[in-house]
Amino acid sequence: MAELTTDSVVHGAGSGTLRIGAESDRIVCEVHDGGQLNDPLVGRRPPHPTQPGGRGLLLVHTDLVRVHTGPDGVTIRCYLPG
After folding, report:
1. Distances from the Cα of 14 to the Cαs of 25, 33, 72, in angstroms?
2. How much is the pLDDT for 13?
3. What pLDDT shows up at residue 47?
4. CATH number for the domain harbouring residue 24
């Protein structure tokens, strides 16, 4: 989850909130910050090889990653096997 927290500080207005919990048989890691995402496929396709950065969410993807973006910022939830 280091990628999520680092991205939150770098791209999300300098701070964020990390929550870790459980749902059924999975561990849930959630990061919320005040940033914005404009690309609906962020983290689902690799950036151009010459582009510096842009790989953080690609590295985070597990079985299930949910990205919610709105006027109050971005929330990313990763579900990991328990």
Report:
1. 32, 8, 15
2. 79
3. 81
4. 3.30.565.10
